Amino acid sequence: MPKIHVRTTVNGEPAEFLCEPGDTLLEALRTALNLTGTKEGCATGDCGACSVLLDGRLVPSCLVLAAEIDDRSVQTIEGIAEGERLHPVQQKFLEHAALQCGVCTPGFIVAAVALLRRQPRPSERDVRYWLAGNLCRCTGYDKIVRAVMDAADQMIDAHDTGKAAV
Amino acid sequence: MSARTFTAIGTRPVRHDGLDKVTGRANFGADITVPGMIFGAVLRSPHAHARLVSIDTTAAEAMAGVKAVLTRDDIPETFAKVVMGEAGTIGLHDMGDNALARTKVLYQGHAVAAVAATSLDIAQRAADRIKVVYEVLPAACTLDQALAPNAPILHEGLRTKGKATSDADGPTNVAMRIEMRRGDIDQGFGEADIIVEDEFRTPMVHQGYIEPHACVARYGEDGQVVIWTSTQGHFMVRDSCAGILGLDPAKIKVVATEIGGGFGGKISVYLEPLAAALSRKAHRPVKMVMTRGEVFRASGPTSGTTIRMKIGAKRDGTLVAASTTMYYEAGAYPGSPAGGGAMCCFASYRIPNFSIEAYDVVVNRPRVAAYRAPGAPAAAFATESVVDEIARRLGMDPLELRLKNAVTEGDRAPYGPTYGPIGLREVIETARRHPHWQAPLGPNQGRGVACGFWFNAGMASSAIVILHGDGSAAVVTGNPDIGGTRAAQALMVSEELGIPVDRIRPSVADTDSIGYADVTGGSRVCYATGMAVIQAAQDVRDQLRQRAATIWGVDLSQVGWENGQAVALDGAPAQTPLTLAELADKMASTGGPVVGRATVSPPMAGPGFAVNICDLEVDKETGCSRVVRYTAIQDVGKAIHPSFVEGQMQGGAAQGIGWALNEEYVYASDGTLQNASFLDYRMPVASDLPPIETVLVEVANPLHPYGVRGVGEVPIVPPLGAVANALRDATGVRFTELPLSPPRVLARLSKD
Questions:
Q1: B540 — phi, psi (to 5°)?
Q2: Which chain A residue has its CA at the smallest distance from B16's CA?
Q3: What pLDDT digit, counting tens, does each position of B673-723 carry?
Q4: Cβ distance B720 to B377 under 8 Å?
Q5: What is the homologous superfamily of the domain A4-79 according to CATH?
Q6: Which one of A35, A40, A99 has the shortest CB-CB distance to B21?
Q7: CB of B125 within 8 Å of any CB in chain A?
């Protein structure tokens, strides 16, 4: 079977690649596009390590076919920071020591960014349930939850300060 | 130990490898790509126990894209050994046989053959075309089956080591018997006013690291091999591969990638010798990555156990006698942590008369690997459940009873040595004072406590500290960083030399670029490797003193070091102190590069103790339990980077809670694993857990210059007992078998 030619947008840039019909988005990101920040923990949609945003929606990239992203837009961990400026979630993960081995971290950060876009003032319970699709075996989640809550506070403060300045 | 004041130690800088990890740049095992690389796949046994009659690879070799096929004929049987610490040597025979089965398959998932091809898809399809004829044998998949008379025998040649009785030396599945005794057990129980006895069972569980095993191997035609792998010990990988493949270790370079969790499960080699052997045949670099199903079926796990535990106490709560018989599943080859369980089970308490018997039993399940405080959690589950029951029956506060019997400096550990300064009493007293202990409970809630102990390890480590001309520095070790140890090492160099921590670059070097290091395990990196780092930094300091002496034209003995600068000591001609930056700037003209080095091999470490307090809420209609509050209190000696110490405690608590409540290997009667996925093997997620409070108690360890104790393993020891004791408190029922999953709890509550 011939390979499929996919034209898409990844992290705001046009991208194209060839894939087999059975290739997953995760495989395409990691091999064809060399974006290895998205991790494979299970390949069955159970661990969240491969979380990406597809047209803004949080998905496990292991359960999306690469061919499905034709003409759509994907955001990966590599596209979360704006140039040299880390996203507040990334910054707070560092400040709160919310990572140990770090392999689940990209998935958690992408998932947390999706949460805060949808729900800027989440409760601790909201954070825990939203992130329940991401497995971490090192931290017990405590510092991850604190980092996300703190990032939310900082983003709201920045937003309010911005409005006040206007 | 004098109360030293620290400047860098105890602060919480952002870790040096943090930015790469929050931006996705960090390279883990599966992220490595090498030019010309092809892909390997493994054919695994569908049977729990079978003889390999024949392996026909013809069809696989004929497929387009297949570059090499590997079977038992390609890797000769080895009897080589690797050295590991002072503990001695580890035979590689079983590790090699586990990596690729030779005469029999011993569990479902046991590797039988491997293929390398130009794509993973081709490799997997080719592996499926290998024709294996099995003679299926009856399997012994549980302890009960393996210990039964006329049990199927895994290894015909196996005889029980340490056997006390003179039974006929027939084939057996019991690989080892360990015995420890003190005092007079009969007299001890005779003095007891109360004796509590029960049998406890824990299931086989997996370490559950999120990153599957992954490596790339490149075998050159000149016999030089490079292996990139995610491992807890790349020197171990080098020496294991050398032994299994019959190579000179000097010909193998192993590069440790970032490691996505290990918890003990990434010490043995699985894929590395296969990838190297495939590369040798294919003349191409070979990448191999396990699927999650393979991780569950063929790596890890830790032993399931059956433990009979009996403890006697006086009416005032004094423990007077204890006896236990423990059985640990080793999986397919000898080597369960029965010894760890035996040494830890009574380590927290002063018990004058005890008897411990522990058995290492092979079963048709995956060969077990180390898992965080190997052997101790199951043992502590039994001990802490019985101690809790004694407190209940005597009407004593469970912390009061534990404090009354807690070991302290000068007491002799059950496994021999006399304890130095230890913090168990401080930890229990801290627990008693903690607001959690006094807080009211809600409806259907119960509270449990448990103690935990782990020895901690010393073993061999190497470090170098390199001073740069601008006064910044590098610190290099041979220990993969699994939880923030690079940050800790930079803090240690900062403490010794006064260089700001963000001007110190810590890294993990490959096996060609740093001296030997034992594995990252045993909670030893901050302790032992940290000692090497401190000494290497002091070596830099002393070389800089020598440079200052040269500049000043005085003897080295007349130059001291204070606050990051060389100073002229009393009696020497007065000099303006030379700062580290000034001395670094003059390196080229005063003798050239300054590189500090140190190697250490501390035979001992300071043991660690912890107490956990758990509040559990039970839904009596569904049997579902939920941890609603959790506090972990631990003697950490001295916290180098407190955030990562807290992280170890929180992570260990979460793993222990998972072990207590939900995790288990579920087998069908034919010995096939039924839940080899993260969907069905239920590890805790964020919504399952409350915030995990931590209290760091610091009783300095005199064996370490800063007082450090290992902190990584103790945290998983208390949770099993703490959760079970909380369930007892909430329901009035003593549960003796884990996991405390809803069906088990509901069945028992309905029955009672």
A1: -60, -45
A2: A94
A3: 999 999 999 999 999 999 999 999 999 999 999 999 999 999 999 999 999
A4: yes
A5: Beta-grasp domain (3.10.20.30)
A6: A99
A7: no
Do B685 and A134 count as a contact with CB atoms less than 8 A apart? yes
A104 contacts chain B (CB < 8 A): yes
Per-residue tokens: B306: 């059956």
Query: Which of A43, A94, A133 is closest, CB to CB, to B292?
Result: A43
B1: its two tokens:
């130990």
**Residues 33-72 in A contacting B (C-alpha not used; CB under 8 Å):** 34-44, 46-47, 49
pLDDT of amino acid B89: 80
Kindly list the domain boundaries of chain B, sorted by start residue. 18-24+458-600, 429-450+607-751
- Give CA–CA dist B31/B26, Å, rounded: 9
Query: Token pair of B214, please?
Result: 């992954």
Predicted confidence band of residue B1 (pLDDT cuts 50, 70, 90): very low
Helix, strand, coil % (nearest 5) of chain B?
30, 25, 45
Nearest Cα of chain B lies from the Cα of A101 at a distance, in angstroms, of 5
What are the angstrom distances between the C-alpha of B503 and each of B11, B16, B514, B543?
15, 10, 21, 20
**Long-range interactions of B142-148: CB distance < 8 A, separation 24+:** B142/B304, B142/B329, B142/B363, B142/B667, B143/B304, B143/B305, B143/B306, B143/B327, B143/B329, B143/B361, B143/B363, B144/B306, B145/B363, B146/B173, B146/B329, B146/B361, B146/B362, B146/B363, B147/B173, B147/B174, B147/B327, B147/B361
Mean pLDDT for B130-154 is 97
Helix (H) or strand (E) segment spanning residue B590: helix B587-590
Residue B181, H or E segment: strand B174-182
Q: Does B85 touch chain A (CB under 8 A)?
A: no
Is residue B165 over pLDDT 80?
Answer: no
Name every chain A residue with its beta carbon within 8 A of the beta carbon of B646: 97, 142-143
Query: Assign residue B172 a region: left if phi > 0, alpha if psi is -120 to 50, beta otherwise?
Result: beta
Protein fold of B18-24+458-600: Aldehyde Oxidoreductase; domain 4 (3.30.365)
Q: What is the pTM of this model?
A: 0.97
CA B528 – CA B531 distance, rounded (Å): 5
Q: Which residue of A41, A125, A144 is in closest CB contact with B211?
A: A41
**Coil, helix or strand for A1?**
coil
Q: Cβ separation of B687 and A76 shorter than 8 Å?
A: no
> Angle at CA A112, nearest 5°, toward A110 and A114?
70
The answer to whether the Cβ–Cβ distance between A102 and B258 falls below 8 Å is yes
DSSP per position, B530-570: HHHHHHHHHHHHHHHHHHHHHHHT--GGGEEEETTEEEEPT
* CATH code matching the domain that covers A88-165, chosen among 1.10.10.10, 1.10.150.120, 3.40.920.10, 3.40.50.300: 1.10.150.120
The CATH number of domain B429-450+607-751 is 3.40.190.10: no
A113-149 pLDDT, tens digit per residue, is 999 999 999 999 999 999 999 999 999 999 999 999 9
Alpha-carbon distance of B137 to B592, in angstroms, equals 68
Backbone angles phi, psi at B273, to 5 degrees: -65, -30
A75 in reach of chain B (CB within 8 A): no
Task: Give the start-to-end residue ranges of the domains of chain A.
Answer: 4-79, 88-165
pLDDT greater than 60 at residue B410 = yes
Contact in structure between B206 and B236 (CB atoms under 8 Å): no
Token readout for A24 is: 């997953």
Write the CB contacts of A139 (distance below 8 Å, at least 6 apart in sequence). A98, A99, A100, B647, B650, B651, B654
At B751, the pLDDT band (50, 70, 90 cuts) reads confident
Contact A101 B211 (CB under 8 A): yes
Same fold: A4-79 with A88-165: no
- Percent of chain B with pLDDT strictly greater than 90: 95
Residue-level pLDDT at B539: 98
pLDDT at site B696: 98
